[in-house]
Amino acid sequence: MEKLIITACICGAEVTKEQNPAVPYTVEEIVREAKSAYDAGASIIHLHVREDDGTPTQSAERFKLCIDAIEAACPDVIIQPSTGGAVGMSNDERLQPITLNPEMATLDCGTCNFGGDDIFVNSENMIIDFAQKMTARGIKPEVECFDKGMIDTAIRLNKKGIIPSPMHFDLVLGVNGGISAQARDLTFMVDSIPPGNTWTAAGIGRAQFSMAAMAVLMGGHVRVGFEDNIYIEKGVLAKSNGELVEKAVRLAKELGRPIATPDEARKILGLAIC
Ligand code: KMH
Ligand code: ZN
Description:
The chain has helices at residues 27-40, 60-73, 91-95, 124-136, 148-159, 183-191, 208-218, 241-254, 262-269, and strands at 6-9, 44-47, 49-50, 56-57, 78-81, 104-108, 112-113, 119-120, 140-145, 168-173, 198-203, 221-224, 231-233, 236-237. The protein is of the alpha/beta class. Bound molecules: (5S)-5-amino-3-OXO-hexanoic acid and zinc ion (ZN).
């Protein structure tokens, strides 16, 4: 089996310091969390950024500050900015980080309820526009899917040449409004992905490590971090993203999957080696 790529989603747009005081807002805090994840074995940092007061922002300047500082602390890490941002942001607002030409960026492949009145909007025309703008800049889309129909949308757009091959899917399971996070759900999602593409499993909340263990065994890759889960075990807050990555590394070691370095991850994903 391929080496395991661990993505750390260190910050997200929704989780707050009230929920876990280690959630990063400032540039220094974001770098601290990225470095803790990188030192523990993460090769990709999935990045959202915040204002110092915690407000989510997609400002290119704020992303640049954070990316420069993360690159200084974690020289070869792959940084994957979000183009999802936070619920309610405009398309132009969400797309700002791609002007920095990162190696990868997220491409959310469908609309999803996000609990209460929140709807995370990604119409087909938006997906096409985001994909075209990313590929024009040589940015690899990370195809983010909260439900099975989103995989089908990505496959359709791939056949039309809008999303390039090979695709890398991030299967997010357990969002309030998306697919649930049981073993059968991940199997169904993975079975829907055509051969030749790669995938990561991101389980939300208590499903973070059950989905991670399945992904390790099934030959996929793993995403952990505060964006998806703030607990290291039931009722115990994680002290850092690094602690969550360490747990994923332990699982992988027990199950016989070595961990990919950033350059090994680049090779697996078809990115240029730095
Ligand atoms: N914060 C969510 C609304 C992404 O990063 O592309 C969207 C999200 C997906 O987190
Ligand atoms: Zn995200």
